[in-house]
Amino acid sequence: MSESTRLKSTVYVGGLDSAVTAQTLAEAFVPFGEIVDITLPKADAHNSGEAHRGFGYVEFDLPQDAKEAIDNMDGSEIYGRTIKVAAAKPQKDANEGLGSKTAIWEQEGYLAKHAVDEADRQAAEEARQASNRPQDPMQGLEQLDVAGPNPE
């Protein structure tokens, strides 16, 4: 099964109670089609009081079964908690986007997309230097040497 077909056959199930197990999800979702795999990501070490992180993934054999499960199970209840059921999204690459361990300018293609040519860089530097020069505090006040209303 290709990765895109597999993704279309997988649903995200969120808002799960800590008592929910893979068996519970299997029993809840089996009416919609043959289930290939159920994943409940484990909690971090510092959150060891919970068996899973409050969400899971159910992979069906057919994409139509996943769509049917989304249509029928989104907003339903399991163990007294309303669950969110939606199409699963692809997992982000560890070197991409927020939270990555690589600086954004070191990512492939970033410099090509956001490169600045040397002429623009020089113009920006000249503008920065010009704005740093002290200006004459009397500049622009040439016509204000007469007090009172403007003589016409």
UniProtKB/TrEMBL annotation:
The keyword RNA-binding applies. CDD domains: RRM_PPIE. Residues 115-152 are annotated as: Disordered. It comes from the Eukaryota. Signal peptide: none annotated. InterPro entries: Nucleotide-bd_a/b_plait_sf, PPIE_RRM, RBD_domain_sf, RRM_dom. It holds the Pfam family RRM_1. Residues 115-128 have a biased composition (Basic and acidic residues). GO terms for molecular function: RNA binding. Residues 9-90 form the RRM domain. Keywords: RNA-binding. PANTHER family: ATPASE E1, RRM DOMAIN-CONTAINING PROTEIN. This is RRM domain-containing protein. It comes from Penicillium oxalicum (strain 114-2 / CGMCC 5302) (Penicillium decumbens). The lineage of its organism: Eukaryota, Fungi, Dikarya, Ascomycota, Pezizomycotina.
